[in-house]
Amino acid sequence: MLYDVIVVGGSAAGLTASLYTARQSLKTLLITKDIGGQMLLTNEIQNYPGFTSIGGFELANKFKEQAELYGVDFVYEEVTGVEEDPPCPDLCFKVRTTAGEYSATTVILAFGKTPKDLGVPGEQTLKGKGVSYCAVCDGPLFKGKTVVVVGSGDQALEAANYLANVVSKTYLIHNYDKPIGSEDLVEQVLKLPNVNAIANSKVIELKGGARLEKIVLLTNDSQSREMQADGIFIEIGYLAKTEFLKNILILNSKNEIVVDRDGNTSRPGIFAAGDVTNIAYKQAVISAAQGSIAALTAYNYIQRLRGKTAARTDWRSITPVAKRG
Questions:
Q1: Any idea which fold 2-114+238-323 has?
Q2: Which among 284, 208, 297, 300 is positioned nearest to 13, based on CA atoms?
Q3: pTM (2 decimals)?
Q4: By CB distance 3.0 to 4.6 Å, which of 119, 185, 232, 310 could disulfide with 148?
């Protein structure tokens, strides 16, 4: 089957993109390993418009259910390659997965980034239970509490700086004599009265039951200690797993897909949205907005290929596929 659009990624950007293309009556396939992506890392989201508080899993499923209403097909596989498909009557693309291959006139890449894990005992079982990878997303959940930021560089410093205005106490754990990062930012963070930097230390274990309770540290002199904390923010960077795209798209130094404001990549017919792109801000609401933009851009690209009129909005009242007939 030749789809009009294949969307790669099952979180805010990808699910929104698939909703918008399906509402434009484009045959849409969404390929993803799971539904939710980084939204699944938090039990509570407080900054998505329309919801005072909602679980990451619940929000992701609301996205999915809405996309399904308009006829989006779902395949739960890992994408391993994207390439042009010469046998197509028009220019189109073949998307390869670990289980097969699919063809479409356009492709929207919206599979986000993967936060780097510490790789210590307890981390996986406590994700979303005090273990977070996004200070801006989850910081307000720890208002008035004690938290730890682990990492070096501006990412960790910015997290500590932000959290200082939210939580009661922040410990910045790093494995150097002094924090590494922009000189002005280091100075600013170290002056904050409720931020305490713990030098020459690394986290070796996270302990807790229903929630994170203790963090085990190892110092450079091989001494270990435990400290109590309500939350830990792991700020050691993110991975854009885009190696399979290097031969077809332009990527930046962070391996992010370079896009313009309309979601166009360097290859006509391939669009991108969300955290996997070079857009600066990484938030669910921003990813969703970018997903809708990329979807409408893809729709207009297809309309031009077919000699039809382009569209700029999606305000139409459409009967969902699930309710037709």
A1: FAD/NAD(P)-binding domain (3.50.50)
A2: 284
A3: 0.72
A4: 232
